[in-house]
Amino acid sequence: MDNVTHSLAGALLGQMGLKRVSRFGMAACILGANAPDIDVFAPLLFDVDSIAFHRGPTHALWAPPLLAAAIVASLWLLDRAWRPAGARPFRAGPLFLATLIATFSHSFLDWLTTYAVNLFTPFDRGWYSADAIFIVDLVYLLLMGGGIWLAARRERRGLPRPARPAWIAAGLLLTYIAGNMGWSALAERRTAEALRQRGIEPTLIVASPPPLAFWERNMAWRSANQWGGGDFGPEGLRLSLEVNALRLDDPRLARAVRTQRRVRSFIYWSRMPIVVTVDGKAYLSDQRFYGAIRSRMLPDSVRQAARRASFLVPLDPSARP
Asked: Per-residue pLDDT for the chain (321 aa), expressed as one digit of tens each?
């Protein structure tokens, strides 16, 4: 999920009442809601690749208490150094709990996207996803932004229960999330049924919501040695007749895994790795992000641009993505 959405999520939690627990309450909620993305700076400090490290350790379920504690400690130092007259009391315990909730919201929102999160690293190498929400979602932005604005306006006017609009927005947001999770689960179940009717046993199916059209799903499926796609929406399931080999036994991939850290990092991150040929060159890619976006809500030029921006890792020494 993008950091504007994470910031809005933190602000919404603050407007729901968490900002009132202590001085710096709102700041702590917004900082906590963004804190796990500190891992984007890891490649600048450590010998790691972003694609393998991002949404890894700082997004794991054991990380929020540590991140929340660091935020509260920093704000405590700020409170000690700068305390205007009449400032709200600094209450470390309640502020830690508020920050912890906000920090957990980050991993939760990221888990909802198809990009996935490594929730249990280093104890489990698996990447987990609800396959429910696109990385940038307009409904999210409208609900959270509206709830924050209405709650703030109610507060400024001195009206009773100023947090009520924020709570309503949060309830609508959770309902929207639950509906999308159910819709993706239905799409994946219908796809599995259709594939089995064709004599194909799927090992993984991912329903990806495209931009803007939250009611549509771009389907990606794979068996032990094949992969394919399709679309799902209110009109039903449309599976593509095109079926491709995974080609994970390509000797160029084996050689690249031995010699290129970038390839090893991609394999570690990828839930649906495939080997494809583009302009006569072999590339490692991921099914979820390979090819054009299949959504009629977007202009054809935008949909085709996604094909050119696909995740492509060269396997031939002379290839360039």
From this structure: 899 999 999 999 999 999 999 999 999 999 999 999 999 999 999 999 999 999 999 999 999 999 999 999 999 999 999 999 889 999 999 999 999 999 999 999 999 999 999 999 999 989 999 999 999 999 999 999 999 999 999 999 999 999 999 999 999 999 999 999 999 999 999 999 999 999 999 999 999 998 889 999 999 999 999 999 999 999 999 999 999 999 999 999 999 999 999 999 999 999 999 999 988 899 999 999 887 555 555 566 655 555 555 588 999 766 555
284's CB contacts (< 8 A; 6+ apart) are: 253, 256, 263, 266, 267, 270, 273, 274, 275, 312, 313, 315
Tell me the C-alpha to C-alpha distance, in Å, between residue 175 and each of 15, 116, 131, 140, 321.
19, 21, 16, 11, 40
**Kind of pairing, strands 281-286 and 273-278?**
antiparallel
Strands in the chain per DSSP E = 204-208, 217-222, 226-233, 236-245, 273-278, 281-286, 313-314
Strand partners, 29: none
Distance CA 263, CA 277 (A): 16
Task: Read off the pTM.
Answer: 0.91
Sole residue written with tokens 């689960």: 185
Residue 59's identity, in one-letter code, is H
Estimate the share of the chain in helix, then strand, then coil, as percent rounded to the nearest 5: 50, 15, 35
Contact (Cβ atoms closer than 8 angstroms) between residue 251 and residue 303: no
- 312 in Cβ contact with 321 (< 8 Å): yes
Token pair 């799409």 is found at: 187
Enter the tokens of residue 315: 């396997």
Of 106, 107, 24, the C-alpha closest to 73 is: 24
- Residue identified by tokens 């968490």 is 18
Q: Where are the alpha helices (DSSP H) in 82-117?
A: 92-111
